[in-house]
Design a protein that fits this description.
The chain is mainly beta. It is about 10% helix and about 35% strand. The protein has three domains: about 240 residues, no CATH class; about 100 residues, Sandwich (Immunoglobulin-like); about 45 residues, no CATH class. It has five helices and 22 strands. About 30% of the residues are buried.
């Protein structure tokens, strides 16, 4: 399993909550340099002509999608469809109350925004953008509190409240990398039914307060996560890319070529891993270039005789550079009149310089399937395994309540 973690490139918290005077709202405040991120909903701290007050806090964050794209082009990141991308945020403990059994929505932001340099998460005195009203200095949100896309949304439940956030957002990240959706980062907020209730007499948003007739009449205060500015490096917000990076060759599964098999099934892949002091490094005289590979028969301990003739009667194949310290060749080997007991693969420069000698047991013949009868398979074969296979097929057919005749089956040759 391969892992690559991409730390958030920007994050901040935006609020429409009251300042200390319970009159002025902190809608112009910015918290881009704060070491934590906060989501909450407070219902009914104040009351007025429109009923009980609504105070909300939401999170904005962005990630280095350009770097992900570059890594994929370079082969550092797995190919599209093979990678799962998980958004990971880590719970930050506070001395305040902690809500339970709530849900957070993770949604792509629909407008560009700036992180800002604010720090004050208590009194909301650091003015700047992004904030509740403006994503940046030159524009405003269409809806106070941020504009979010309604596709590729993710709903994450917190039964006890102190859990970390981890959610698979692969589909969204792949769209960002492919360029089919513009990346403006993510917004995180409570569900509409858990953000505080508010009903304006006009039936619309009232300034910075959101019309929410399906909202909650209880508070959810407060959930915090570590921000990218935290001193705790391993608890910063990340997108974690996970994929199966195993590279398996055919050294233990090597087959002779056959004219009855498709060309791609006749090829066997072999890899050379150049480990020095526990890490992969390029062979100095090869670098990212090619290597020649020759094959020999031999005893149990060493290759002997001349190079084996490969398919098309060539004596060498070319191994290409895959990634740091890894080289790969593909070879088709034709069965000889005298079966080989062991095959040695010698990786060399094309002249006298040899880099590595590997080995594998005698290649096997490809299993070719042709129409035949199970009776002949079980009675005429000299191979006890094939004879037993034919008998198993016959016994299976006997248990079927109807038999189609004639019954074309398969001969293993």
């Amino acid at each position: 399993m391969a892992l690559l973690r991409y730390t958030a490139s920007a994050d901040t918290t935006i609020v429409n909550a009251y300042e200390d005077d319970l009159v002025t709202r902190g809608t112009g405040s910015n918290m881009g340099y704060a070491d934590a991120l906060e989501v909450f909903s407070i219902y009914g701290q104040e009351s007025g002509s429109n009923g009980q007050s609504q105070e909300l806090s939401r999170i904005l964050m962005d990630f280095p999608i350009t770097q992900m794209s570059s890594d994929r082009t370079a082969g550092t990141l797995g190919s599209s469809g093979s990678v799962s991308f998980f958004l990971k945020l880590y719970n930050a403990r506070t001395p305040f109350t902690l809500p339970q059994n709530f849900n957070l929505i993770v949604a792509p932001v629909a407008k560009p925004w700036t992180e800002g340099t604010g720090l004050d998460m208590d009194n909301y005195k650091d003015i700047g953008t992004a904030n509740w009203i403006k994503p940046n200095a030159s524009s405003s949100w269409t809806t106070p509190g941020g504009d979010y896309r309604t596709v590729n949304n993710y709903n994450v439940n917190f039964p006890l409240g102190f859990e970390n956030l981890e959610v698979d957002i692969s589909n969204l990240v792949e769209r960002w990398i492919a360029g089919s959706q513009t990346n403006y980062g993510l917004g995180i907020h409570l569900t509409g039914s858990q953000e505080a209730y508010f009903s304006s007499s006009l039936g619309t948003d009232s300034g910075s307060v959101l019309q929410n007739t399906l909202g909650a009449t209880q508070s959810y205060y407060t959930k915090r996560f570590f921000a990218r500015s935290t001193q705790f490096f391993f608890q910063r917000p990340t997108i974690e890319a996970r994929w199966d990076s195993r590279v398996e060759d055919d050294r233990e599964n090597f087959f002779y070529s056959s004219s009855l098999a498709p060309a791609e099934d006749n090829l066997n892949a072999l890899y050379l891993y150049n480990y020095i002091r526990g890490r992969l490094v390029n062979i100095p005289k090869v670098g990212t270039g090619n290597i020649r590979v020759s094959f020999y028969s031999g005893s149990a301990t060493a290759p002997t005789g001349a190079k084996l003739k490969l398919q098309n009667l060539v004596s060498n194949v070319t191994a290409s550079y895959i990634s740091r310290g890894i080289y790969k060749c593909e070879v088709a080997l034709t069965a000889a009149a005298t079966p080989l007991q062991k095959v040695y693969d010698v990786w060399h420069s094309g002249s006298a310089l040899q880099y590595f000698t590997g080995s594998f047991s005698a290649p096997r013949s490809l299993i070719i399937l042709n129409a035949f009868s199970p009776a002949r398979l079980s009675s005429s074969s000299s191979d006890p395994l094939l004879k037993r296979a034919g008998m198993i097929v016959l016994r299976t057919i006997e248990r079927i309540s109807y038999i189609l005749a004639p019954w074309p089956l398969l001969q293993i040759t």
